[in-house]
């Protein structure tokens, strides 16, 4: 499967949404099955409007979708959402591993490092 690189804006929205405990909990609840915003609001000690705002943040990040069913809005997770989060983390890991590998190569090539290794004396 070929996956396009995620934009910085997409990654920022994704991790901003996941940074909040309530939003992560909403996501976990919706993974088990779609729930109405009203039903979600019953689970939290905050106003219905506050829960709506949390759901909107998750929706902008592409982690959930909403569908109107009569007077209710049903929230469900996007099945590809976890894949996008994993892709973003994999890209960050790859970049950092590359940097660490380059530093290790530079240190291995540094004559000062080699001198320190041989002038320290016998190991104890």
Could you walk me through the main structural features you see in this protein, from its secondary elements to its overall organization?
The protein has 124 residues and is mostly helical. It has a three-stranded antiparallel β-sheet with strand order 1-3-2. Helix 1 (8-18) runs antiparallel to helix 4 (48-60) and helix 2 packs across helix 4 (48-60). The longest helix has 29 residues, at 81-109. The chain starts with 7 loop residues before the first helix and ends in a 5-residue tail after the last helix. The protein has helices at residues 8-18, 21-31, 37-42, 48-60, 81-109, 111-119, and strands at residues 35-36, 64-69, 72-77.
What characteristics describe this protein?
mainly alpha
